[in-house]
Amino acid sequence: MTRTVELTTWLDAPPEAVWDHAQTSALLRHVAAPLIRFVPCGGRFPRRWTPGEYRAWMFVFGILPIGWQVIGIEFPTSPPTAHVLRDNGHSPFVRRWDHWVEIAPGDGCTRYTDRVHIDAGMLTPLVAGFARLFYAHRQKRWRALAKRAALSRQAELSRPLCSKNAGRSPG
């Protein structure tokens, strides 16, 4: 049984800056915290992701261990106006955690989409529910990070902030 979870948000940051951050392991740690803490198995994550498999222990709220996950980084061919990063991951309990991140320009903002295809057998509905919560949390952290950077840019450039997420809590 496979389920797909997809969430999109708008970030008040240039697409190239978002793409630059998305390629770093520090960004993963930041947007996942405090909900999930990833600890690399046997070593450290690279500063910038390169194609390959990275095994990580995962801890809910930073303390409750929930096992390990393979983070399988790929950079598939992207449409001309977008950037795509893929984490083709899996774990002993989740046979497929195929996460695609798409970053594209849009109306003075950046459109950021998380799409994950999940197969966890009978646990798929539960894992998909967690994925929806997790990616909503990550995107909230992304918006807050972009807004902090945008406020300093706004002062420099005297331009309005992105209005795509009007009504959403930035932090």
Quickly count the helices: 3
Which structural category do the helix and sheet elements fall into?
alpha+beta
User: Helix amount, in percent?
Assistant: 25-40%
Mean of pLDDT:
91
Task: Please trace the helix and strand order, writing H or E for each element.
Answer: EHHEEEEEEH
Radius of gyration: 16 Å
Number of strands: 7
Can you tell me the overall shape?
A: globular
Poorly predicted parts? none
Q: Report on the biggest sheet.
A: 7 strands, antiparallel
Distance between the termini: 34 Å
Strand content: 35-45%
**Largest sheet: spatial strand order:** 1-7-6-5-4-3-2
Overview of this protein structure:
The chain is of the alpha+beta class. Strand 6 and strand 7 form a beta hairpin. The relative contact order is 0.21. The mean pLDDT is 91.
Keywords, separated by commas or semicolons:
171 residues, alpha+beta, 7-stranded antiparallel β-sheet, 29% helix, 37% strand
Outline the secondary-structure elements.
Layout (H helix, E strand, L loop, with lengths): L2 E9 L3 H8 L2 H8 L3 E5 L11 E9 L3 E11 L8 E7 L6 E11 L2 E11 L4 H34 L14
Antiparallel strand pairs: 1-7, 2-3, 3-4, 4-5, 5-6, 6-7
Write a compact overview of the structure shown.
This protein is of the alpha+beta class.
